[in-house]
Amino acid sequence: MTANVIVTVERQFDYPRERVFRAWTEPTELAQWRGSPGWHVETESLRGEQKLGGHHYHLKVRDNDPSTRVGTDGVYTEYFDPDVFVSRERITGDPGIDPDVPLELRVEFSKTGRDGTLLRIIQGPYEPDVAGWHGEGWEKELTRLQDFLVKTSRQEATS
Description:
Layout (H helix, E strand, L loop, with lengths): L4 E9 L3 H9 L1 H4 L8 E3 L5 E2 L6 E8 L2 E16 L3 E9 L10 E10 L3 E11 L1 H31 L1
Antiparallel strand pairs: 1-8, 2-4, 3-4, 4-5, 5-6, 6-7, 7-8
């Protein structure tokens, strides 16, 4: 088979682009929500340079089996805060992704209304038989991002 499927996922957030962009690109924030339910980001693994050409890395670990680990090692090929970033990434530890074939992750942050953000994720190429699963994974992660934004906005409001 040939990896030739691009996954696109969109979600509307009631938070400004700057806030949503920071949740994606600031390693300490990303670690609090990335991963599908049952996974977490190993905080010791976090690295990130928020700039064009900057490298970033994080390792997701399955909660009930810490030996199952998926690493994302990327370089920002576009970086326009708070509008968009594009990262060329190598994923290791995911049986559905060839670690020798880089993926491209494009995340767009479009202003909607007064303070909303339309987030669009475009990632691939994937093998056709695993693309749907990865699209579902992104949907679950975006639910975790929503929960993180709600929680942190409450904390910021009471500070």
